Amino acid sequence: MCRDLCLAGRKSERDMRTMLMVETESRTQNEEIIFLRLPQVKAATGLSKTSIYEKIKCNAFPLPIPIGKRAVGWIASEIKQWAANQVLAAREERRHIELRQLRRGPANSRIALRRTA
């Protein structure tokens, strides 16, 4: 599914993780950090456990943070930001589709009028 993203290259993955770490460090100084466990992340995103970890592998989802020997959590604000980005991307894609339909619209509407006449 996201194989292309995974094959993008290790250097860019490392750079993205470093940027995320720097961004997270600056954020932690300004706001309270709330950790979400996997069931809460699944409920917030509507994704399955497998989908979450596939997206993490492809750098398409926030990384979990170790919070114990055998426990990880996700920063709530990062999950919220990811969800907001998903909404924006979906709306942007919808706008592009509507624009394409508008550009082709008059020709298609003439064809539809000829068929009904």
Description:
- With 117 residues, this protein is mainly alpha-helical.
- The chain has one domain.
- It contains 5 helices and 3 strands, in the order H-H-E-H-H-E-E-H.
- The protein has a 3-stranded antiparallel beta sheet with strand order 1-3-2.
- Strand 2 and strand 3 form a beta hairpin.
- InterPro entries: AlpA, Prophage_regulatory_activator.
- This is AlpA family phage regulatory protein.
Topology:
Elements: H1 3-6, H2 10-30, E1 35-36, H3 38-45, H4 49-57, E2 65-66, E3 72-75, H5 76-116
Antiparallel strand pairs: 1-3, 2-3
Protein name: AlpA family phage regulatory protein
InterPro entries: AlpA, Prophage_regulatory_activator
Can you tag this structure with a few keywords?
AlpA family phage regulatory protein, mainly alpha, elongated, 117 residues
Provide a count of the helices.
Answer: 5
Contiguous runs where pLDDT drops below 50 for at least 5 residues: none
Mean pLDDT: 80
Radius of gyration in whole Å, from Cα? 21 Å
Pattern of helices and strands:
HHEHHEEH
What's the short story on this structure?
This is AlpA family phage regulatory protein. The chain is mainly alpha-helical and 117 residues long.
